[in-house]
């Protein structure tokens, strides 16, 4: 395993500072010391990325598609070594890591297909109308083009699928942007293995080395330097609100501000409607408890708020929640800081006025295991107290009890922007809560019916990005093929000669992609 930074394909360890990751199960520092990148090394990574971009941005779709597929093959070729390392550094079980690897490789291959299909560039052609009165129309053609080197901050909670070769990297590389990954301090070894796999793919595909680099750091300075480098053109981030906003601030303070696509956290409200509670209280409680405790609750889509209306069967629902949470098993959290902040943030909510625990395991453990808990509060108290709106990252959820439909709506309107919002109800429930559903749709990026938010499908129609503060820019998704749109910008060509135009905009449609020509969608 390479413990140096990997800069444009070459190991580089000029610094004297080192950083180690931890085994969260044994709570032990791991022996490999990873060398932190110096300012000079960060600059070199970005300059190499910029040089590589000049070539890589013009790579044809089949070349980029092949590159993404070779990355997937190289990751798979790491076999059990990668799985074991990711388990060691995250405490996550084998099944979860194997699944994440499948998702990582699957999304690389999905982007390859997207490139081959080609219409993602949104080619639009308005041909000249020289005879138009009172003024002629000139020829104007527009498409999306790659924006330049991208900095990627990897996620602690997805060591593979949202990390070194995860959605941000895959979408940026697909867009024609070189990537510099800032490794997450929790999984440096996993990062090193995947970074090496990507670098091998760069060589195999004959691409310039600067298309991919990976740097390590022992504090915020490394990431800050990367974001502030003038040749970085966009940032992908998944993590805390505090970290995300610090990066947004750094990006805005540059001479040339750049977009930061930060996914920062969400409480993912679930509304369980009256008829469903009356008919299926136990089943729904079971479904919710499993979703809250999945992956020790360390998902950005973890259901942190459950909203119910005072109705027949509510007592059965509350009792079932208690029993279901009692039967859950505490699992090891990703690292000590996440474990400690879970316990502190959970307690902070439970200690608020009008909050009553439904189930809260009191016995402390000396391990970093997140103890599942559920509490309840009135709608009035929730609306008034912003502390209760905060994400508790871990297996905790707060049930908000509303007196009536009006309070359901008040709660919805009081909520901040969310990645997801779910409605669990019968057909009649849904018909009689249209207003609530409309209000909820204004607050979320994904509206789910009769399901839980955990488990985000990687597909073309996915939108994983809600209004602020769940993300820094709710217009864009970090999951699914539309994630590519974060790393491109539209360019219009006015009256441009054919030989200057990119192939996607040329007469005769040489790429045979879907385009909009004079207002009509066509492959002609
Ligand atoms: P984090 O503290 O935000 O860190 C994420 C990445 O950003 C790391 O690489 C970190 O590296 C870097 N970073 C953090 N603050 C920075 C700053 N001021 N300037 C530059 N870089 C900075 O997130 P985390 O370590 O993954 O987890 C901490 C908390 O984040 C969790 O307890 C949870 O509340 C939340 N979280 C949310 C999600 C989600 O999906 N929304 C996912 C994971 C975690 P350095 O520390 O080395 O600078």
Automatic annotation (TrEMBL):
Residues 17-470 form the Aldehyde dehydrogenase domain. This is Aldehyde dehydrogenase (NADP(+)). CDD domains: ALDH_KGSADH (cd07129). Keywords: Oxidoreductase. It comes from the Bacteria. Gene3D superfamilies: Aldehyde Dehydrogenase, Chain A, domain 1.
